[in-house]
Amino acid sequence: MELLLALLIMITVMVIPVKLAASMVGAKNTGFFTCLGALIVASIIQLMAIRIVPALSEQLGILLSLPLTAVAYMMVLDTSFLKGILIAVLQGFILVLMTFLLAGLLVF
């Protein structure tokens, strides 16, 4: 039961930044399960890219991850490529902010 609860919390913490960023940018599909699907598609696309492109360098992987994530968000959230990039960047900032807030709450 604890594992299921931990998994549910982890999924929620991962989806909320995408949902908030998609709403800020004005994406057409901003539902919880749509954002969860966007995260899953982005992960699958990135895993395929890792398998296709050999691990040449860590910097290349970082450079490829942003446009690939933007393509996934563009397809699933029904938005433009530039808005997909903005969603990916905003998602990262919101996730870091949420992590700091949750870590601060757990300290006290």
From TrEMBL:
The lineage of its organism: Bacteria, Pseudomonadati, Pseudomonadota, Gammaproteobacteria, Oceanospirillales. Keywords: Membrane, Transmembrane, Transmembrane helix. This is Uncharacterized protein. It comes from the Bacteria. The chain crosses the membrane at residues 31-53, 60-79, 85-107.
